């Protein structure tokens, strides 16, 4: 295949050249953390709204039993298994995130596990594919974001089509030309807009499943000779021209390419199951809760100032609807009221029942919201509680725990994993917590994915 003068060719060449043995131990350890966190999020969101519909449709669409639906003895076609697993992983918005809203592991890990069952790969191969795929997409993200933040209204999980296609292509052992077409086909599928966040629709969850499904389908189509667009990045209708806020910085694509594997330095692992823009707000309100609980709520005025990014995604008045879980996950007012009144933010506090609790709804609706246009940090906010005769209580927040500037430790992720599995609706996962942790820890030297699958699908 001859290059056609698109920057994606340089990245594609690297995906073929990089051998699993080349990846440093630190990079592989980070990929194990991604798998652990992804399975925690999947367990927590196992029976969330929309997951039953996703499973029912996947069973209708599936004509073979190639890969497992995690936590069960059900096997479906690989794209459909990945679809269901990705919807569950994303359901509570508990999954890792890269600015400005790409949730890489929610689709990457389901793609990797499904394709590993097709390709018979080693544990190290799976970890390497995850690392190379994330590096590929993050370089594109970094170049596109050089002169702006959001992608012109498109959901930045479109980046997951790039990473997922590369992961699938590696694990299915596609030839270089086939890999290029897989990436082009994945890009051609497109995915999502930020409108589904603003409208609090279940499309947020389903779109993540479509990313995983389409990534595998793109690789499978390419393997059968279907060609995809080749000027993926710089074509007149390529990624940069369609989505980048301003001109892309192409130098970001190749800095230490094949030497440094991007991902860990930009990934946020979440402590709470809600939008990552609001992590700092929950941290700050929980820290101040002792004083807040002494205040007479009925006599208090509450004002929440926030960055433009927070205002756009999470600043609407809180009114729980028939998608109350999502209303809560993407509401700054609900997040503040929940932390204030309940003192915790676990998956349980984001169930439909808890999201409609009158006391929390009442406080959330009393909070007055203001946008501060000169705040550039996306999670910057300020909660001010005023009452007659007292000095106002001011709570400043930014750089929530979990973002790279304020990271969670690996031990924190194990705590999260155990909590998610304790609360999971999936009994096989609840009963197998310790073995899953052990199998993930041993994945680098595992001859196949079989031992991990026996732990996460213990009834197969």
TrEMBL record:
It holds the Pfam family MmgE_PrpD_C. It comes from the Bacteria. One of its GO terms (molecular function) is lyase activity. Residues 272-424 form the MmgE/PrpD C-terminal domain. Residues 18-246 form the MmgE/PrpD N-terminal domain. InterPro entries: MmgE/PrpD_sf, MmgE/PrpD_sf_1, MmgE/PrpD_sf_2, MmgE_PrpD, MmgE_PrpD_C, MmgE_PrpD_N. Belongs to the PrpD family. This is 2-methylcitrate dehydratase PrpD.
């Amino acid at each position: 295949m001859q290059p056609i003068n698109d920057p994606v060719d340089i990245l594609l060449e690297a995906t073929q050249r990089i051998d699993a043995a080349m990846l440093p131990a630190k990079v592989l350890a980070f990929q194990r953390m991604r798998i652990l966190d992804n399975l925690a999020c999947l367990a927590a969101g196992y029976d969330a709204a929309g997951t039953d519909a996703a499973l029912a449709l996947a069973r209708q669409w599936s004509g073979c039993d190639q890969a497992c639906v995690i936590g069960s003895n059900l096997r479906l076609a690989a794209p459909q298994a990945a679809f269901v697993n990705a919807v569950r992983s994303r359901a509570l918005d508990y999954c890792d995130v890269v600015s400005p809203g790409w949730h890489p592991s929610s689709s990457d890990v389901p793609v990797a596990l499904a394709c590993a069952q097709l390709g018979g790969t080693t544990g190290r191969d799976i970890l390497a594919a995850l690392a190379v795929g994330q590096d590929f997409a993050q370089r594109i993200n970094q170049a596109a974001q050089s002169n702006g933040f959001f992608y012109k209204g498109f959901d930045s999980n479109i980046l997951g089509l790039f990473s997922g296609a590369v992961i699938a292509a590696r694990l299915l052992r596609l030839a270089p030309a086939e890999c290029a077409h897989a990436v082009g086909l994945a890009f051609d599928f497109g995915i999502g807009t930020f409108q589904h966040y603003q409208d609090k629709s279940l499309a947020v969850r389903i779109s993540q499943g479509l990313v995983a499904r389409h990534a595998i389908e793109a690789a499978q189509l390419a393997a059968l000779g279907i060609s995809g667009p080749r000027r993926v990045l710089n074509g007149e209708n390529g990624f940069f021209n369609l989505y980048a806020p301003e001109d892309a910085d192409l130098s970001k694509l190749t800095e230490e390419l094949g030497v440094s594997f991007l991902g860990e330095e930009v990934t946020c692992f979440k402590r709470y199951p809600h939008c990552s823009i609001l992590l700092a707000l929950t941290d700050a309100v929980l820290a101040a809760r002792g004083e807040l609980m002494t205040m007479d709520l009925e006599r208090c005025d509450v004002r929440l100032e926030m960055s433009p990014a927070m205002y756009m995604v999470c600043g609407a008045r809180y009114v729980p609807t028939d998608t109350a879980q999502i209303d809560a996950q993407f509401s700054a007012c609900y997040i503040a009221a929940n932390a204030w009144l309940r003192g915790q933010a676990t998956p349980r506090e984001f169930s439909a029942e808890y999201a409609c609790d009158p006391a929390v709804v009442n406080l959330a609706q009393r909070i007055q919201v203001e946008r501060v246009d000169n705040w550039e940090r996306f999670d910057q906010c300020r909660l001010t509680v005023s009452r007659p005769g007292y000095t106002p209580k001011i709570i400043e927040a930014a750089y929530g725990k979990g973002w790279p500037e304020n990271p969670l430790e690996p031990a924190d992720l194990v705590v999260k994993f155990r909590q998610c599995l304790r609360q999971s609706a999936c009994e096989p996962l609840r009963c197998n917590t310790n073995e899953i942790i052990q199998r993930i820890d041993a994945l680098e030297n595992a001859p196949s994915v079989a031992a991990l699958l026996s732990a996460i699908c213990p009834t197969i």
